[in-house]
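quick one, 305 residues, struct below
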Amino acid sequence: MSGARLGVVVNPTAGHGRGERRGHQLIQALERRGHAVRDLTADSPEAALDLARQAVVDGLDALVVVGGDGVVHLGANVVAGTDLPLGVVAAGSGNDIARAGGLPMHDVDASVRALEHGLEHGGRPVDAVRTGPPGYEATRWYLAVLSAGFDAAVNATANTYERPRGTARYVRAVLEELTRFRPYGFRITLDDEVWEQSGTLVSVANTSSYGGGMRIAPDARWDDGVLDVIIAGPLSRSGVLGLFPRLFNGSHVHHPACTVVRARRVLLEPSHAGPLPPSAYADGELVGPLPLLAEVVPGAVRLLA
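---
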């Protein structure tokens, strides 16, 4: 496969600088293969998003992102709901979205083969999730997991650390967040079912993992048209500490405090049943405070895989 018009967005800070190296290698490899490459990398995610959207208007055959889940999230917000396919070159610390797609990790040559295979055969349609405050037209898209409980607070704290890398960073953040944890008040509407009480953890999952391989929703599938909603009821600090290690292998879903429900439409709201929940994160990126509505859109992204 040769001669495609490809826009490439690189997160140079992904993987502590690995993203920049992989980005240069990718662009050189694609140009050697005869593709017309337009480098859309910018000084900020917002600027890169603007460049990518303009490049789509100008005409591309695919958008390719290089880095971790954050830059994949950016790419999804360019292509979701369109016919433009998305290529992913995994070069971050977590790479949960690439892992969900069975994509190569930290291997430019294998990634180029995956991209060209997708271009030649049409790629793989996967579900994406549209989220935002209910009643507002402005929305965001995500591909993996939205977190709105203790896991969101941990995400926010982990983002303030430069070290350690990967899941070890989340373990450190868990220990810090436990010092101030109290179960939050939630009202959750799952299609037509309402769940309201205090709770510890709420995740609306389109794929199985987050945080660099923690299997928050072990049975979630990327192309089944439904979301796996994981709800952990009120737990003490010691209860949270006991539950957290089970996220690594997915066995937390069998914990008595946990419930897994499947739904196409999920409304998350704060409730007087407990303190205000933290701002939500999706694909590791800040989305904002509750209330938030999340709706799955089957096949909204075509992945080059």
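The chain has eight helices and 16 strands.
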